[in-house]
Each structure stands twice: as C-alpha cells, then as structure tokens.
Design goal:
Helix content: 40-55%
Shape: globular
Order of helices and strands: HHHHEHEH
Number of helices: 6
Strand order of the largest sheet: 1-2
Structural class: mainly alpha
C-alpha cells in the first residue's frame, strides 16, 4: 500500500482489506520499524512490491509514490485506487487504475 501519512485513511484501508482476507502491508509502516532502510524507502518499497499481488495507491497530492506505481505496473502488478475494488476483485468486478 502506498499513499499519504493520513493514519485514519490507512487504518480504514488496512481494516477493510484484512476483513476481506488479505494481508495488507503499508510501505510506510514497514519502514517505520526499520530505520536503517527508511532513507532508502524507494528501494525497500520496490523490494517489498515483488512479494505483493497488487498495490493499493491511496490519494497522495505530493505525487511521492508515482514512481512506485509506475514500477508496480512495469512488474505487471494491478494498481488499485479504491480499497473496495480490491475487495470486489475476487468476484471479477474490480477496476484497476
């Protein structure tokens, strides 16, 4: 998951995904516990992405995560803009961005 540091939006997305049977891994949360890789966040995020099935990109006006979204697409990962699309993905009704 990539996106802003808005804790409320992130918690809601994590809760919805977990309730639907997914194991969400917010990139910023992971790097918060690994200060030695925080400076290399982009490299860490790309490495983490290789083990993910898809990416949820929460709204981020700064555009900070644009390169990670491009990398996800290059790796052939679906990129979702709405948590509900991931929840619906198992029924074949989801839209990717």
């Amino acid at each position: 998951m990539v996106g802003p540091a808005d804790g409320t939006a992130l918690r809601r997305a994590v809760a919805a995904l977990f309730a639907a049977g997914h194991a969400p891994v917010p990139c910023d949360t992971a790097t918060a516990y690994l200060p030695e890789v925080a400076a290399g966040r982009s490299r860490y995020a790309r490495r983490l992405l290789l083990h993910c099935d898809a990416v949820l990109c929460l709204p981020d006006p700064s555009g900070r995560d644009d390169s990670l979204v491009r990398y996800a697409r290059w790796e052939g990962k679906p990129v979702y803009r709405d948590v509900h699309d991931i929840v619906r993905a198992s029924t074949g009704q989801a839209r990717t961005a």
